[in-house]
Amino acid sequence: MNLRRLSYGIGVAFALAIGISAGAQYRELQHARAQLKVLQPSEIDIGFSQSMSFHHRQAIAIAQLLLDGRPTGLAPLAQSIASSQILELGEIQGWLRLWNQTLLPPTQEMTWMLLGNEPLDEQLNQYLIACGQSAAGMPGIASSEELMQLRRLDGRARDALFLRLMLNHHQGGIPMAQFAASQAKLAVVRKIAAQMTLDQSQEIHQIQTLLAAISAPAGD
């Protein structure tokens, strides 16, 4: 009888342990699923990351064209832009790999910017019109001819062209970043978009100051 009671007790304890373990595993699974759902990107998260990957690639290329060893007083600016955007590019493309998405936009259409929670304002509407009219699908992207010209020029003329190309490039990218900073689903995407907006706005001011100085007649 004692042996039966002992066996019964062991069986109950074993079943209870299995039940507790199964319950814990179920709760962990539910928590993991909830976390995964929270981290699932929206079309805005994906579209912004793909479009900004394309955008950053050219900014890096423009900066690296200036950093070819020839004399320029703009090397610190070009190096700063290249370094910061290489880091950002690595981060956003890491997300795209995690989400099993292509690293670049599958089309030139910026339809993800139509998916916000608020109606299009006039500024955003004009930006999307400019995107549709651009050969690259977004404004501010330098043409192959402009990049070739940057390779060919020297001295002051090359520096001036670099500044104009980078100014146009930044101005064409900020509306994307501003939109994602307010409309992206994931906090990490909103955060990097807001930082891009801040950094590129500051760089625009710096570029405009340098461009005014370099464009001024000698002796002024």
UniProtKB/TrEMBL annotation:
Top-rank lineage group of the source organism: Bacteria
Domain DUF305 residues, every copy: 45-211
Protein name (Swiss-Prot/TrEMBL): DUF305 domain-containing protein
Source species: Zhongshania aliphaticivorans
